[in-house]
């Protein structure tokens, strides 16, 4: 039994030279094929796949960047629009204030002018009144006093002198200042 | 019934005990180490096979000697 | 035990072993070239299968062990080692073929020799001969006196035992697995045909043993291909590394 299985009488550790040669040849052929074709092709496929995946990632990143940029731009526009609006509002307010101030100025000038006119008119009327008053008061007083003292005062020359003196007295007297206004 | 055969094969059987125990210990220690710290696996693995090869060398030498003598 | 060779040229026997080696080369090259022929970004089923195999060698054997920076030039060698050994080992479990090529020692010696030359060569090229020898034989952080013992031990262990066990590991497991199935089959035949009667029950036990060993063999065949390539990667990594 044993002998029939271990028929190989020679030591199994001793190699057969031809087997070694054929193994070496087979191995070399396979190694050559692997170096020349199999490994480069697989590596290229791996690299391409990595590229494709990373390319996809890069594309997504680009799109993301684009979106970010658009959003920034939008925000910027919004910001500038807001600034613009604020500026316009500011300008309008300034304009309004200026117009208001202008009108106020003009109104002031107008009122000053009117006041001036009024003053002038008042002064003119007053001087007219004073003049007429002087005449009338003089003649009235003369008449009255001529009636009191008789005909002596009918002389024009004298009567005018008396009236003048009287008026001068009137003007000098401070107690009568109120009547002048 | 006669028992025939080579006594050196029994010797190889004995020699294989040592190698078997040694390889078993090495892999047990490896599994423990890796289950405790899985991140060290890549550092330990080459050492594992280095040690495994050295220990198993004894059993293989026993095999060779069994065939030679 | 061996089939007679199909024909002979001088002392060269063109037998099953030769046919299987050439068949494995054709199978591997054919499959991977077929799988990657389109180089599609979105892989078809065939390409996906090829990429799983290639990616396994590239990433878990190459990148994880040799390291991100250095592993690219080593991919073809790792790839060839792994699939050459894997397919040739699996031939041992395929009916009719039924011969793991590496149960013939010559094949294992050649592959381990190629691996040995490759990592010693790259180590010497990278570090210079003297430095490489120091790296291999003088472990760091050891009291100086111990070097008297350590240098010979490390020399034998790293530069002699390493390639020998590298070759013999795959050879021995294939040879022994092949033999174990043959023993189970022989036992079955013996019990059924020669003993008979109650022996047929024992034959059923032998059958189960044989089936069990068969599946164990498949596991070991895959594992040995992996370990061979992994150890090669570890040796290359050790030769490339700076430091000790």
Automatic annotation (TrEMBL), chain A:
Coiled-coil parts of chain: 53-98
Main location, first listed in the record: membrane
Keyword Coiled coil carried by entry: yes
Entry's transmembrane regions: 20-39
InterPro entries: ATP_synth_B-like_membr_sf, ATP_synth_b/b'su_bac/chlpt, ATP_synth_F0_bsu_bac, ATP_synthase_B_chain
Alphabetical keyword list: ATP synthesis, Cell membrane, CF(0), Coiled coil, Hydrogen ion transport, Hydrolase, Ion transport, Membrane, Transmembrane, Transmembrane helix, Transport
Subcellular location: Cell membrane
GO molecular function annotations of the record: hydrolase activity; proton-transporting ATP synthase activity, rotational mechanism; proton-transporting ATPase activity, rotational mechanism
Top-rank taxon, per record: Bacteria
Recorded topology in the membrane: Single-pass membrane protein
The UniProt record lists the keyword Coiled coil: yes
SUPFAM superfamilies per UniProt: F1F0 ATP synthase subunit B, membrane domain (SSF81573)
One Gene Ontology cellular component: proton-transporting ATP synthase complex
Pfam families documented for this protein: ATP-synt_B
Subunit structure: F-type ATPases have 2 components, F(1) - the catalytic core - and F(0) - the membrane proton channel. F(1) has five subunits: alpha(3), beta(3), gamma(1), delta(1), epsilon(1). F(0) has three main subunits: a(1), b(2) and c(10-14). The alpha and beta chains form an alternating ring which encloses part of the gamma chain. F(1) is attached to F(0) by a central stalk formed by the gamma and epsilon chains, while a peripheral stalk is formed by the delta and b chains.
Family that this chain belongs to: Belongs to the ATPase B chain family.
Function: Component of the F(0) channel, it forms part of the peripheral stalk, linking F(1) to F(0).
HAMAP family the UniProt entry points to: ATP_synth_b_bprime (MF_01398)
Protein name: ATP synthase subunit b
Species this protein is from: Kocuria soli
Highest classification ranks of the organism: Bacteria, Bacillati, Actinomycetota, Actinomycetes, Micrococcales
Gene behind the chain: atpF
From TrEMBL, chain B:
A GO MF label: lipid binding
Site residues by UniProt (Reversibly protonated during proton transport): 56
InterPro entries in UniProt: ATP_synth_F0_csu, ATP_synth_F0_csu_DDCD_BS, ATP_synth_F0_csu_sf, ATPase_proteolipid_c-like_dom, F/V-ATP_Csub_sf
Identification of the protein by name: ATP synthase subunit c
Subcellular location: Cell membrane; Membrane
Family, per entry: Belongs to the ATPase C chain family.
Organismal lineage: Bacteria, Bacillati, Actinomycetota, Actinomycetes, Micrococcales
Entry-linked PROSITE patterns: ATPASE_C
GO cellular component, one term: proton-transporting two-sector ATPase complex, proton-transporting domain
The V-ATPase proteolipid subunit C-like domain, residue ranges: 10-69
Claim: Ion transport is one of the keywords in the record: yes
Role: Key component of the F(0) channel; it plays a direct role in translocation across the membrane. A homomeric c-ring of between 10-14 subunits forms the central stalk rotor element with the F(1) delta and epsilon subunits. F(1)F(0) ATP synthase produces ATP from ADP in the presence of a proton or sodium gradient. F-type ATPases consist of two structural domains, F(1) containing the extramembraneous catalytic core and F(0) containing the membrane proton channel, linked together by a central stalk and a peripheral stalk. During catalysis, ATP synthesis in the catalytic domain of F(1) is coupled via a rotary mechanism of the central stalk subunits to proton translocation.
Membrane topology classification: Multi-pass membrane protein
Keyword entries, A-Z: ATP synthesis, Cell membrane, CF(0), Hydrogen ion transport, Ion transport, Lipid-binding, Membrane, Transmembrane, Transmembrane helix, Transport
Residues passing through the membrane, by range: 6-31, 43-68
Signal peptide extent: none
From TrEMBL, chain C:
GO molecular function terms noted in the UniProt entry: hydrolase activity; proton-transporting ATP synthase activity, rotational mechanism
Pfam families linked to this entry: ATP-synt_A
Alphabetic keyword roster: ATP synthesis, Cell membrane, CF(0), Hydrogen ion transport, Hydrolase, Ion transport, Membrane, Transmembrane, Transmembrane helix, Transport
UniProt entry tagged with the keyword Hydrolase: yes
Domain of life: Bacteria
CDD domains attached to this UniProt entry: ATP-synt_Fo_a_6
InterPro entries for the chain: ATP_synth_F0_asu, ATP_synth_F0_asu_bact/mt, F0_ATP_A_sf
GO CC annotation: plasma membrane; proton-transporting ATP synthase complex
Transmembrane segments: 20-36, 74-94, 106-124, 145-164, 170-191
Membrane topology per record: Multi-pass membrane protein
Subcellular localization: Cell membrane; Membrane
Main location: membrane
Family of the protein in this entry: Belongs to the ATPase A chain family.
Listed NCBIfam families: ATP_synt_6_or_A
Biological role: Key component of the proton channel; it plays a direct role in the translocation of protons across the membrane.
Protein name: ATP synthase subunit a
Species, as recorded: Kocuria soli
Gene that this sequence comes from: atpB
